Amino acid sequence: CSRMSRRRADSHGSLGPDDEVVPYSDDETDDELEPSIDEQPEGLPSVSQLSGKVNCFLCESIPLCCLLDLNWQVKANDRSFCKQPQFQKKFFLCFKRCKYAGNAIRTYKYNVITFLPLNLYEQFKRAANLYFLALLILQIIPEITTLPWYTTLVPLVLVLGITAIKDLVDDLARHRMDKEINNRKCEVLLNGRFQECRWMQIQVGDVVRLKKNDFIPADILLLSSSNPNSLCYVETAELDGETNLKFKMGLKVTHERLQEESQLQSFDALIECEEPNNRLDKFTGNMLWGRERFPLDLDNMLLRGCKVRNTDECHGLVIYAGSDTKIMRNGGKTRFKRTKIDYLMNYMVYTIFVLLILVCAGLAIGHTYWYQDVGSRAWYLYDGLNQTASYRGFLSFWGYIIVLNTMVPISLYVSVEVIRLGQSKFINWDLQMYYSEKDTPAKARTTTLNEQLGQIEYIFSDKTGTLTQNIMAFKKCSIAGRVVRCLAQGHNGSKWVDFSSNIFAEKKFQFYDHHLISCIQSKKDKDVLEFFKLLSLCHTVMVEQREDDLVYQAASPDEGALVTAARNFGFVFLSRTQDTITISEMGTETTYEMLALLDFNSDRKRMSIILRFPDGKIRLYCKGADTVIYERLSPNSKYKDVTQEALDVFANETLRTLCLCYKDISRADFDAWSRKYKEASIAMRNREEALDEVYEQIEKDLLLIGATAIEDKLQDGVPETIAKLAKADIKIWVLTGDKKETAENIGFSCQLLTDDMQIYYGEDVNEKLSMRQNSRRNEPLGKPKKIKERFFPEGGKNALIITGGWLNEILYEKKKKRRRLRLRRLGKKPSPTSPQDSQPMNDHEKELRQQDFVDMACECGAVICCRVTPKQKANVVNLVKKYKKAITLSIGDGANDVNMIKTADIGVGISGQEGMQAVMSSDYAFAQFRYLQRLLLVHGRWSYIRMCKFLRYFFYKNFSFTLVHFWYSFFSGYSSQVAYEDWFITLYNVCYSSLPVLLVGLLDQDVNDKLSLMFPKLYLPGQQGTLFNYKNFFISLFHGIFTSLIIFFIPYGAFLQTMGQDGEAPSDYQSFAVVTASSLIITVNLQISLDTSYWTFVNCFAVLGSMAIYFGIMFDIHSAGIHVIFPSAFKFTGVASNALRQPYLWLTIILTVGISLLPVICIQFLCKTIWPSVGDEVRQRSTLAEEPPKEKPTFQRGARSRRSAYAFSHSRGYADLISTGRSIRQKPRARRDAPESIKEAPQAENI
Question: Block means of pLDDT (10 residues each) for the chain, length 1247 residues?
């Protein structure tokens, strides 16, 4: 039962952090943290004492900058101010530059001068490239060279050139994007008038003019706008992916005095504010103008990346430009990402280097002893050089380094780049990841990470715009105990209601409950009428008339959905003034006098409005979360039990619920309450607490009308995608800045959370971690460490929901920051921490605490982190990478996700929205979250399997090829003599064996895409890294050793004391080289045929074509004609035709190939029959269809009742603007004709 009735944490009543507040991130400057009471310097009052005195300006005697270090100074209309010596900073040695950045942004890596040296430097950081450069230098030395220099130079130039061209193309795309942004136009006040300038020419201190639909070029202080009280609406899709509007407001003094161009020209204020930082939700500063000081906060700032909406014109002062802006600061450091296979391949190359040196050293020692015993005594081997045996051994060492260099073929890196490029193109061309509604295809923005997509263990996802559409739909309601479905579900063939009589109804709105419509039209059911009248009156939505349309601007999409629902049923919100609100009730226009508006906040979780009806009656309408409404209902209220049951049903369907109620108030009671309300409204201290207390006095004895249920629409296919990925053992964490209730509700909606899960919150996590920390501290020193105990030994399904405040508390981030700030202000050194307090004793203990948190979270089936900052998102990702060594993927759609996207091993951006900041920083982009399962389970798995198969085979074929030289050296006096012809060595990896393995790396499939999605368990080998590791590497090595043994010694035995048909012994070195080379080519091409799972015409053509090319080229270069033209380069004249006409040698080739492949065929047969892999089993069961998913019942008896998030604004609404009249132009004239249509604009939310 305890699991069913899980207690929620009350953060306000505990000593823990506030769950409703986005915490400070640990990367802030110390100047950003306001000192607490115990941190105040002596002689200065606290900030709370000053806050009551700060309304329009601060007292000059105690400026706020004395308490907060406001080191960033900006002088309006004065570009030279920022160039003064005190604003210079060192950037290299003794060179200085201005600390104020220009507005040009730079995301590219190279320019014309730096491209060649910087790109070559980056490429030669690869050990293989550096190795081949050293090899090329060795081949130029005549005394040790055994192969022509061009055998290394041509492939090296090819590799460097292809990689450089790819890097150049990528960087040119970044150049074009930067150029496009930097050359956008904006009006800047220069020389007394506004002039059109490029963004890159804007400087700190400039006054700019922006118009409707303009992007904001920098972080700007709003001075004035064409709207009342200098309101300015902005769309923040670039920042957070949300399309609902948010409003900003200029100071009253600037609104009144800075409207005209001449007034703006004479504006000379000095702005003192915080240093540039990445906090999107915070800004602190002062404006000194004349002899007065005015406070500034985030409400006065327009941030770069936002878009001006519903505002004809506005003026602002540039505070931060370019790389100093908040959106650029949130970008995080661009990291060079490499795959796990890349690192593994590098280590294997190092292993081959070591083996190569050991083999060459052994052969060099062998040559030394051989020369002493044999070579120096054989007169026919005398070369005229009087060199010692040791020196000859030294030269032999370097000669073998050259001969055996193909153990690390440079063509490996070219082939890998080609395969990755092809796999990226397949992702781009996948029509099943194309979103036709917005004409958005999937896009692989990098070509280096494809196989990593097949190894993902953790996914970190944003919520808004990633899992959800950020669209609210009025789904169901309960009116007087009767549940009504408001959307087209389960209508059982009933006819839709005809809404043609309601000219305000949405054209797409469909409804089938004729009984409800008849109740509304007959006006007989009082409860139904009161229900929809409340929805049309109790809100803070503002309306603007544009030609024949009414445009709603709501504080959140929730409120817009409620008001729109009322409109569809005939209760249309038309207009409002400072003290009236007008609606149309079934065609009749009625105006109500608004006596008070009791706005929503996160503590109250409700809002109310007190109205005087035309007949003089006073009524309070209230809507709010059921947890707070039921406490305030009258004992005589009806429908409580039946509405509670409806709320349980709605909650189990993961809908966001809201209770509606009302109360009639007598004139005397209202007058008495109104006096208290006015007194609280003008209180200088603790005004909000006083208002809340007064609100409590009137919001009681309420009568319940019903409840609404709003759906926060998920993107299509989100639950199915999460379920599929979970079956693939991929853990999904949601990291969002939303409220805890909202995030938890979405967790249930997308089936990340289920009813059988035990949910742990921040205080539970902190308690468990503290217990583990205390037990660790109490362990006696020197005692051997026990095996780590599980945090949830009882098993079962567990989930973790933690807020950003608790995250800082648990990981010691905020405590560390506060403590450092306090000590710095008091001028003291840090004192040692005692085990009794909650501080970490040292950095090691902090790391252990972080590791404990990661271990606990990874034991859970689901993790949701809410109210987290962009920096915290990145920190969470980094913790999992650090302590779990896991491959991570982050997916998001806004600028607040950029840091997280860059930190993860793979970053995915949701494209198709207006906010493209996440996409520009991502590695892969597509339009819908559901495409993630195809990206990982199909393209990622295929890419991983193909790359692993390619690498295993590539190492094998080169070991088989190169080690023949090693066996040959035992019969050539260890003299660095090659076993093949020079041209065969040059063309082996280029023409003879490259195409079949390249096609396997591009096209091979163990199962098709449908089976890959049907059986997610196929993804597990990639996570476990079982297809390519050191075990596979050594298997390829020993396989290559075995093949090289067979290829050398069988022809050697066949040539030994042999007589040909013509009576001559074909035992010459050149004929032997032809036979071994032919055996090798046929063997390696048939071997890749055995490893190919998916045959196409192209694969077949490549295998047969490679062997045909070999024989064709061999006969050509062994011909007499080419020997006549280039006698020194082609010395095997007539060898191929002479050797291959001998049937005995063909039998030798067939025997060699057969013995090389027979063990492989036997092993593959045994493995597939006795030890089949998951892919083998799936291929055998490929005819089976996936079982249809079982539908869960709508309501489960005994299931835990979820109180879903209250379905309206999560921050303060427009009540202040409405009640003060600041947003009202004038009272609208009475309309004779109703507008033709009313449409809902993107919703607005105050930040």
Answer: 36 52 48 39 38 37 46 88 80 75 85 89 80 84 76 79 83 86 91 90 92 91 87 78 75 88 90 86 86 86 87 91 85 73 86 91 92 79 78 89 82 84 92 90 88 93 80 82 64 56 64 69 80 89 73 76 85 83 86 87 82 90 87 86 86 82 90 88 76 87 89 85 91 85 82 86 86 80 65 82 84 56 52 50 79 89 87 89 91 83 90 66 89 94 94 93 93 87 84 91 90 90 91 94 94 76 65 91 94 90 93 83 67 73 87 94 87 75 51 44 52 64 54 44 41
Side-chain-side CA neighbours of residue 83 (13 Å): 5
Amino acid symbol at 8: R
Q: 793 Cβ partners below 8 Å, 6+ apart?
A: none
Q: Which residues pair with 197 in a beta bridge?
A: 186
Under the phi-then-psi rule, with left for phi > 0, alpha for psi from -120 to 50, and beta for the rest, what region is 652? alpha
Q: Are the C-beta atoms of residues 337 and 446 closer than 8 Å to each other? A: yes
Check residue 23 and report its DSSP letter: P
**Beta strand 193-198 pairing with 185-190:** antiparallel
3-class DSSP state of 210: strand
Query: What distance separates the 2 farthest-apart alpha carbons in the chain?
Result: 132
1232: burial class by Cβ within 10 Å (0-12, 13-18, 19+)? Answer: exposed
Non-local (6+) Cβ contacts of 1095 within 8 A are none
Q: Tell whether 386 is in a known binding site.
A: no
Are the beta carbons of 1007 and 403 closer than 8 angstroms? no
Token pair of 585 as six digits: 């009730």
To the question of whether residue 779 is assigned a binding role by annotation, the answer is no
Tokens of 145: 């060279």
Q: Is 623 annotated as a binding residue?
A: yes
Would you say 176 is a known binding-site residue? no
Q: Please give the Cα distance from 485 to 942 (Å, whole number).
A: 45
User: Which residues, including other chains, have CB under 8 Å from residue 103's CB and lie 6 or more apart?
Assistant: 182, 199, 200, 201, 202, 203, 217, 218, 318, 321, 322
What is the per-residue DSSP string for 1067-1108? --HHHHHHHHHHHHHHHHHHHHHHH-SS--HHHHHHHHHHHH
Can you tell me which residue has the tokens 């390249």? 998
Give the other-Cβ count within 10 Å of 438's Cβ: 10
Q: Is-contact 762 809, C-beta < 8 A? A: yes
CA quadruple 257, 263, 267, 271: dihedral sign: positive
Q: List CB contacts of 746: < 8 A, sequence separation 6 or more.
A: 463, 467, 468, 654, 712, 714, 734, 738
Give the integer Cα–Cα distance in Å for 276 and 31. 10
Q: Give the residue numbers marked as catalytic.
A: 462
Number of C-beta neighbours around residue 328 at 10 A: 23
Residue 2 tokens, joined: 């305890």
10 Å CB burial of residue 93 (0-12, 13-18, 19+) is exposed
Distance of CA 163 to the CA centre of its chain: 26
Separation CA 114–CA 92 (nearest Å): 18
87 is annotated as contributing to ligand binding: no
C-alpha 24 chain-centroid distance:
21
**Sheet with 307-309, edge to edge strand ranges:** 245-249, 231-235, 307-309
The conformational region for residue 859 under phi > 0 = left, psi -120 to 50 = alpha, else beta, is alpha
What tokens appear for 504 in the block?
């305000």
Q: pTM of the entire structure?
A: 0.78
971, amino acid identity: F
CA-wise closest residue to 342 among 278, 262, 249, 420? 420
Q: Is the dihedral of CA 432, 437, 438, 439 positive or negative?
A: positive
